[in-house]
Design goal:
438 residues, alpha/beta, 6-stranded parallel beta sheet, 5-stranded parallel beta sheet, 32% helix, 24% strand
Length: 438
């Protein structure tokens, strides 16, 4: 008799890939949506910043309260990797612990009922994943770990240095997924523009782009998480030249003040960042996303206002804002001149207004234009609309397009269509499908 599995994947989409690997190793289980009926419950945690850690712990406690007698509660991921001794000592609610090195051994861990922490870095190779959330799109993880030394980030401390997958491994995975019907891919890692440097290749992404373009059936692709110091002009221009990869540029710059960039140990200064952003922005049909940290130690009012002025001036399509999180095992944790929580909240509220204005401006530019979309299912507004995203956008983070009319009949989830954007209502674009693409 088959058993039931309930899995929660928290944090970033890199975690999601690891969760999909675990689902692939546990295919004999029925995946269910009700934790109270599960024989095995898995929480793939995030341990990056304070709020993510709190969410992970809250999820563990909630599932423990809901689960049935004799079920197994398994906790894995970044939080357990970072705090393995403390959590095993304190979380008596949990039956099994494992870290970030054993996703491909999750079946053995459950069968043997023994916690396990393998020190080696796990890199996806031949494992078959169970892709979730889409019948057309898949994330492709390029590497693990990071060689950067940002003042605010603890990830290199518990995930280690950069470990890149081989080009052959990535090409093999994409080729396999294309045969399964997937045609839209997002390539991700902690620092994607460093891909291959540990293997002796300075421009690994440029090589990868060329190989992915040769795979028949890959119709849409984007790269997430470029890092300023490892993103060359050659790479940016190679993306722009590609007919497969969208002019989608996701570079979290974190700040723009030269002083703050130095304090944050970002490597690149304002001049270099502006050069990169201008190349991105000037590309045809480009989409530019960034991330910013507010309230880092030693960010005084002058430095913050410089950031505000910059966000006013530059037309980002999307901006993710983060309150500084004071994390142990980072150099920022030991810095003087901490910004108070109240002041961080005030600054976030001030810059959020500008970010929302930029978001609205980006959306308004789509009104009256034709756009390639992918149908993702019933919309967030209910059954009267189909939910879609622009094919160039990344899933989940860049917004939703509501399709309220079709000139080609019934629309199929996972298919791509040409649509005309008719209006903007709040933060949602409305569109009419005019042509079937694929």
């Amino acid at each position: 008799m088959s058993k039931n599995l309930y899995l929660v994947s928290l944090g970033c989409n890199k975690n999601l890939v690891d969760s999909e690997v675990m689902l692939g190793k546990l295919k004999e289980y029925n995946i269910i949506d009700e934790p109270k009926n599960a024989d095995v419950l898995i929480v793939n945690t995030c341990g990056f910043i304070g709020p993510a850690k709190e969410e992970s712990l809250d999820t563990i406690f909630t599932l423990h309260e809901q689960r049935k007698k004799d079920s197994l509660l398994v906790v894995t991921g970044c939080l357990t990797e970072r705090y393995r001794e403390e959590l095993q000592e304190e979380l008596k609610e949990v039956d099994l612990f494992t870290g970030t090195g054993d996703y491909d051994k999750i079946d053995e861990i459950i069968n043997n009922k023994q916690s396990r922490f393998t020190p080696a870095t796990y890199l996806l190779n031949e494992e078959e994943r169970v892709i979730t959330g889409s019948v057309a799109h898949a994330y492709i993880k390029l590497s693990e770990g990071c060689n950067q030394s940002c003042s605010f980030c603890a990830i290199p401390g518990f995930k280690g240095k950069l470990h890149s997958r081989t080009l052959e491994s990535i090409v093999k995975e994409v080729t396999y997924l294309v045969k399964q019907g997937f045609y839209d891919f997002s390539f991700i890692s902690q620092d994607s523009s460093s891909y291959g440097r540990d293997l002796g290749t300075k421009e690994g992404l440029i090589e990868l782009i060329g190989l992915i373009e040769q795979i028949d059936g890959v119709k849409s692709a984007r790269i997430l998480y470029l890092y300023p110091t490892t993103t060359s002009n050659e790479l940016l221009h190679r993306i722009i030249e590609s007919k497969t990869f969208h002019n989608y540029f996701d570079m979290p710059i974190q700040h723009i003040s030269d002083e703050m960039l130095k304090i944050m140990k970002r490597g690149a200064g304002k001049k270099r960042i502006l050069e990169q952003l201008n190349i991105m922005r000037n590309a045809q049909n480009s989409f530019v996303r960034t991330g910013l940290i507010v309230g880092h130690p030693q960010e005084d009012e002058k430095k913050f206002n410089e950031l505000v002025d910059f966000v006013k001036e530059f037309d980002f399509d999307r901006v993710s804002l983060f309150a500084y999180s004071d994390e142990e095992d980072t150099s920022a944790y030991e810095m003087r001149d901490k910004v108070s929580d109240d002041e961080i909240t005030t600054r976030l509220e001030n810059i959020e207004k500008i970010v929302q204005e930029k978001y609205q401006k980006s959306l308004k530019l789509k009104v009256g234009k034709d756009v390639d979309i992918i149908i993702e299912g019933e919309s967030s507004e209910g059954e009267f609309f189909m939910g879609a995203r622009a094919l160039s956008w990344a899933p989940q983070i860049d917004g939703e397009i509501l399709v309220n009319k079709s000139d080609v009949g019934a629309l199929k989830v996972g298919n791509s269509y040409k649509a005309t954007v008719t209006e903007l209502v709040g933060d949602k674009l409305l569109a009419t499908v005019t042509k079937t693409l694929f």
